[in-house]
Task: structure prediction
Amino acid sequence: MSDPRTAAPSRRDVLRAAAVLAVAAGLGGCGKSDPETTGGQVTVDLWHGQTDTAKKALDALIAEFNRTHPDIAVIGGGGGVTADSMLQKVTAGLAAGSYPDVAYIFGSDLASITRSPKVADLSGQLQLDAVWPAAKAAITVKDKVRAAPALLDSLCVVYNKKLFAAAGLPAPKAGWTWDDFVATAAKLTNPAKGVFGTGWPGVGDEDTVWRLWPMIWDLGGDVVSEDGKKVGFEQAGEQALATLDKLRTDKSLYVDPKPGGEQLYQVFLGGRMGMVATGPWQLPDILDRKLDYGVVPLPSYSGKAVTISGPDTWTVFDNGSARVKAATEFVRWMLDAQQDVRWDLQGGSLPLSTTTAALPQWKKHAAETSGLQVFVDALETARVRPTITAYPQISEHLGTAIVSVLLGKKSPADALKECVEQSNAVLAVPS
Amino acid sequence: MASVVGTFTVDPRARAAAAKRRTRGEGRTAWAFVSPSVLIILGLSVVPVLWSLLLSFQASDLVSPSRWVGLANYRTLAADPLFREAVGHTVVYTALYVPLSVAGGLAIALLLDRKIRLIGLYRTLVFVPFVVSAAAQGVLFSFVLDPEFGAANSLLHQFGLPAQGFFSDPSQALYLLVAISLWSGTGFCVIVYLAGLQSVEPEQVEAARIDGAGRTGVLRYVVLPSLTPVTIFLVLFQAINALQVFDLVFVTTKGGPLGSTTVIVYFIWEKAFKSFTAGYSAAAAYALAVALLVIGVLLQVYQRRVKR
Result:
C-alpha cells in the first residue's frame, strides 16, 4: 500500500524487534531450565502412569509428602501415558535427554532400562529387611538395587461360586492339581449358555506368558538355566503347554484375542467364565459387580504351592545429585509402612513388606475383603521372573509358542522346540 | 496502489530497479515470516531424518552408548525372515487396498455425481467413516468381530453359517484389516473423485454424445482420461497410506495372531521399542522410505508421460 522505499526501514525495525524478543525468550528459557535453584526447593518429576482410584490415592500421598517435606516439590504428572506404555515413553525420553526423576517401571522391564547409565543405583539407600523376597528379587539387577518396589501382586485363581453350584461342583481347595483344574474347567463349560471353564490372553504378550512360569517352576524348570547360557524350560515347557492344549481340545478355554487382556476379565465379570487366574487388582471390579466369588491358590503338578509375582517398581533417574537425593527420599517415604498401607488400601497393591501386612489397618482391610488374604499368603511361595536383559525376547518367543498352541496351529512339542531354539540364540549373545 | 499508478508514470528502467529492490526487501520480510515454520520443519523433520540415517549405521538401544556397525544392520535386514514376512504382509495389504479403494471410490463417486434428492446427505454419509480415527475403528471392529461375543458371528449364526475366528485366525486377520481400511479409506477417494468430476468439461461430454458415444463410451474416452491426474494422486496417496499402516494394527491385533499381521511399520516399532534395537529399526525404516521414494518417482514419471 505505502511506498516500498519508506517502508523498508520499518521492516528492518520489525526484524530487530523480533531478534530482541528471541534473545529475551532464550534468556528467559535459560533462567528456568535449572529447577534445582527455584527458591531453594528441589523439584522431583514423577511419571506414574496411574489412572482412576490409583491416581487419586497417589495424588493424596504426593500432597502429603510435599506438605511434610517443604524443601522438596514432587510433581506427579502422569508422563502423558499409562503404565503400559511407560517403558516406551521413558526410553524415548532417555534418548532425547529429557527424562523424569522417578518413573513407574514394570519389574519385567527393569533390566532393560538399567542398561542406561542414567538409572540411579539405590543399593544401601532403602530399608528392605521386611520387604517380601519376591519384591526384593524384582528390584535387584546384577546384585544391585536399581529401584524401589512400587506395587506387589501374586497370581491366584478366582472362581465364580454360582457357576460352580450350577455345575454341581465343590469349591476348589488349596493343594489341587492341574489335572483337577482341567477336569473342573471341562465340567464348567456350557456352550449352550456361552459359559467357559477358564480363559487365557491370546495375543502373545507378557500377559500371555507370565501365567505359564509358575507351571514351569513347579515342574522343576526355570526361565534360564543355572549358567544363564540356555533356557531352562526345555522339558518342563512341553508339559505345561500340553495342559493348555488339553484345555483347548476340551473347548473349555476362552482365548482373548484383544491386546490388553481386558476382555478376558469382562467375560468373567459377566458371569460367563468359571475360573480365571488373576491378581488382587481384579478384586475391586469383581466386588463392584457383586459377583459371588472365591479365591484359591494356583493349582500345581507336584502338590507343592508355587505362584508368580509381578512386582512393579519406582525407578529413579539421575538428573543431578540434589534431585537424585530428593527422589530417593520420596521413594523411601513411599516404602514406609505408614504410607505403604494407605497405597495398598486405596491403590490395590498387596503390602510391600511384612511390617505393613502386620498393621491393624491392613488386617482389617484383608478381613473385610473376601479372598484378599489368599493373595497375601501366596507371596510366601511367589517367585519372580529373572531381571535379565534377554527376558523380553525370550518372553516374545514363548508368547508365540503359547499362542500357536492356544490356536491349535502347532503341537506343544513343535511350538516349544522352535521357541527353545530361538531363545537359546538370544541367550548366546553376550550381554 | 502506488505501484499500479507508478506503471503509468515511472520510466521502465527505474521500474526494474525498484522491483529488484522491492523483491530483495520482500525476500527478507518473507524469510522473517517463514522462519518459524522453517525452524519447525528443520527441527522436526529434516534433523530426525538425518539422525535416523546415522542411527541405521549403529547398534543402539537408545539408552546406552551406541556403536558404529556400518552396513551390518542392512545386511541382517536382508536376511531376516521376519522382515521378509512383514514386507510380504505389507505388499499384500497395499496390493489389495490401493486398487480396491480407488476403483470403489470411482464407482461410488460416479453413482453420487447426479442431481437427486438428499444427495448431500449421501455424500456426507460416504465420507463419515474416513473421519473416524483408526484407533476408534480398531476398537469398534474388534467388538463387532469378536469370535465369541461379536455381532458378526451372531449374524453368521442366524444364516446358519459356521462361526469364524476373525482376528484370532491367522489366515483371516490381514484381509480383515484390508476390509476395515476400505470401509474408511474409500470415502476419501469418493470425495476427491467427486471434486475431479466437477472439472470434466461438459462440452467434451456433449460433443462425444453428439458423435454417438454411449454411457460407457463417454466414461471410457472422456471422463476417465480427464480424471487421470486425480487417479495418479489417489494411487500415490493411498499407496503411501497403505505402506505406512500402523495404528489399526496396533489397536486390533498387535501384529498377531502369530505374526500374521506384522506390517513393516509395526515391525519397526517392535524392533525399536520392544526389542530395543533402534539401529536395526532405523535401517528397516530407511528401507521403507526408499521404497516409498521409488513409488513416488515412478508415478511422477508416469504422470509427466501421460501429460505429454
Observations:
- The domain at 156-308+390-427 of chain A is CATH 3.40.190.10 (D-Maltodextrin-Binding Protein; domain 2).
- The longest helix of chain A spans residues 4-32.
